[in-house]
Design goal:
about 80 residues, alpha+beta, Arc Repressor Mutant, subunit A, 3-stranded antiparallel beta sheet, 3 helices, globular, DUF3253
Length: about 80
């Protein structure tokens, strides 16, 4: 995926996190679904970019309420603003 696509994914991740606010989470698939009708192929890239944002302290990822790495976690995760 190109840097432009990564930038678009990052922008959508940030937008959803901002809209939901500090106490609400969202599924990475919401980002992929907002970006493409055939959204499943985007999931790996969405998780990778979410991992980049989490590493920079912009997002946090959880799995069953426990902090998780968005890239290496298997199964469903939730994302939220890091603050």
């Amino acid at each position: 995926m190109s840097n432009t696509d990564d930038a678009a994914i990052a922008a959508e991740l940030r937008r959803l996190a901002r809209e939901r606010g500090a106490d609400k989470t969202f599924c990475p698939s919401e980002v992929a679904r907002a970006m493409a009708s055939d959204w499943r192929p985007l999931m790996e890239d969405v998780r990778r970019v979410a991992g980049d944002l989490a590493a920079r302290g912009e997002l946090r990822a959880t799995q069953k309420g426990v902090p998780a790495d968005p890239v290496s976690a298997t199964g469903p995760i939730r994302l939220a603003r890091a603050d």
